[in-house]
């Protein structure tokens, strides 16, 4: 279900030559899902949050307003609601995932380019491509299946995979980023992370990863100047593919 794209500007960087070198070394692309691959803010996130709030209210016997507040507090504190529920209330993540993400996703899968074009755009990213999302596997696989992207990616790192070093670690935990790069055979300096969240990008960049701020569909920060959390700023993945096409690539490895 394509949506009307907004007017874009050419991506900007602080040092175009330096960014060109960094991107030429990328062997692994870690790509966010919500508001990066597709427009989750056009209905998907609201649908999921409603189910989260209803589940929390039922599971913890809380009134609606308190359930809403708890969901938002845990999301802000831990980067993922399920982490707070597991730590403070003993809620099994799998139970939470099924209750909040096990529904028909297709009506909410909206993109700027449409599924066919999106597949071609992502396939242009040279090297291995992996989805990295705080959402559960049932959700990530449903989105990729609905957008016909399953064959484009070499793997998925979802919330189900985030129990690392004895605790649940969601974005922006740097241990998660390091673990994801290692799992797919790349060093941080050979990895590029694409996300719509400055906090997530800053954590990945601090490890030495290249960082692309895909401004997504809900960011109101201007893209008219370089930002400390990003090597490159684009409005969407289509713009990133076009930018890579303008940059000469070095040999990988």
Brief account:
42% of the residues lie in helices and 11% in strands. The chain has ten helices and eight strands.
Q: Which structural class is indicated by helix and strand composition?
A: alpha/beta
Taken in chain order, the helices and strands follow as HEHHHHHEHEEEHEHEEH
CATH superfamily label of the largest domain? HAD superfamily/HAD-like
Number of distinct helices: 10
Strand content: 5-15%
Gyration radius over CA: 18 Å
In the CATH hierarchy, the architecture of the largest domain is 3-Layer(aba) Sandwich
Low-confidence stretches: 1-14
Describe this structure in words.
With 253 residues, this protein is an alpha/beta fold. It has two domains: 16-40 and 110-246, HAD superfamily/HAD-like (Rossmann fold, 3-Layer(aba) Sandwich), CATH 3.40.50.1000; 44-106, DNA polymerase, domain 1, CATH 1.10.150. 42% of the residues lie in helices and 11% in strands. The protein has ten helices and eight strands. The strands form two sheets. The chain has a six-stranded parallel beta sheet, sandwiched between helices. A two-stranded antiparallel sheet has the order 4-5. A hairpin with a 2-residue loop joins strand 4 (163-164) and strand 5. Helix 2 (44-60) packs across helix 3 and helix 2 (44-60) crosses helix 5 (93-101). It starts with 15 loop residues before the first helix and ends in a 7-residue tail after the last helix. Residues 1-14 have low confidence and may be disordered.
